[in-house]
């Protein structure tokens, strides 16, 4: 199960006792969840008004950072293409993948997302706790906003390159009506540098090939007898040459079209044909060159976003806990990994433990519809007597 519950409850005589009381009832006896202390440092509280305003803003920031995190993960899956089944093992947290080889990166299990949140430690270097809560939120917002902007730029560049390559590859393999003919024709198929004569390429439907052989010399006057050659044939069409006088080209094209013979616009030029082949080679090379650095950038910045997201969750728990439980700051944040089959029972146990914190709640912990709690960033469906946030770390299939 990829869902975790991040909760907090007021400290009893000690915060350790708060944790043990919850853990004893959910983990050891009933096997309802695996539990972890969630360490939040001594952050600056500020005023009550600041906390109330920040609570709503942190809710929006939470949604934004999660969406960018999932966008980076999804785009990494796109870029990996046929290696997409390895996406899970490429989505790591709290590591610098730029300094790791691919093999060592995949072995770095300490970067596993579940390990990161169950062993969460506040990043003092990135988010100094001497700063105000608002400043820390602004640092995260700016950092993730920049990653979001860079992702748009990098994905646009790579997608355009990929699209150009795909279009050229389609032209190499598509129908004779549209595909690139450079790989099919040779110099000897054409009359070149003639003042009067020109060689055309004609695509003939398979069912009309006998008609072509019987009648191509009669389509107009001034067609060179026995000048047609079959160059290539697929399951639908044949590609033929025909040589004629330049002065009747337009007339020939008109009458050929009436017979469902399609004249391809093509001029044999060795330099242009070579340039076309070089272009596809260049696109393939460019894509390979960009692939490695782009994958590394996505790995590193997925980690940055994911870690920032969990820090936002920590900020939210801190702010809501102070608003709920008051000052001085005395609460224990706890991370629960529920047993999927027993989530209802787990809710009931938590309600037994913490239902007294809010007399307005019904059995099971959900607030009455009439209850309105201004400043607390909860919807009606996820308000409980204790501070609660859900974290789903499935970055592949889960939709926020």
Write a structural description.
The strands form two sheets. The protein has a four-stranded antiparallel beta sheet, sandwiched between helices. Strands 4-5-3-6 form a four-stranded antiparallel beta sheet, with helices on one face. The protein has helices at residues 15-28, 48-80, 87-90, 102-107, 113-118, 133-173, 209-215, 249-258, 270-325, 343-354; strands at residues 3-10, 33-37, 197-205, 229-233, 237-245, 262-264, 331-338, 387-392. The protein folds into two domains: 3-164 and 285-363 and 377-392, subunit c (vma5p) of the yeast v-atpase, domain 2 (Up-down Bundle); 187-267, Alpha-Beta Plaits, CATH 3.30.70.100. By secondary structure, the chain is an alpha+beta fold. The longest helix has 56 residues, at 270-325. The model is unreliable at 97-110 and 361-380 (pLDDT under 50). It starts with a strand and ends in an 8-residue tail after the last strand. The protein has ten helices and eight strands.
**Main beta-sheet strand count, sense and barrel state:** 4 strands, antiparallel
SSE-based structural type: alpha+beta
How many domains would you count in the coordinates? 2
Supply the CATH class of the largest domain.
Answer: Mainly Alpha
Shape verdict: elongated
CATH structural architecture of the largest domain: Up-down Bundle
Widest sheet: strand ordering: 2-7-1-8
Low-pLDDT segments, ≥5 res: 97-110, 361-380
- Our Rg estimate from Cα atoms comes to 34 Å
Count of strand segments: 8
Quote the CATH topology of the largest domain.
Answer: subunit c (vma5p) of the yeast v-atpase, domain 2
Q: pLDDT average, as an integer?
A: 88
Relevant CATH superfamily of the largest domain: subunit c (vma5p) of the yeast v-atpase, domain 2
Which oligomeric form is depicted? single chain
Helical proportion, percent range: 40-55%
Strand content: 5-15%
Keywords: Hydrogen ion transport, Ion transport, Transport
Organism: Frankliniella occidentalis
Protein name: V-type proton ATPase subunit C
Family: Belongs to the V-ATPase C subunit family.
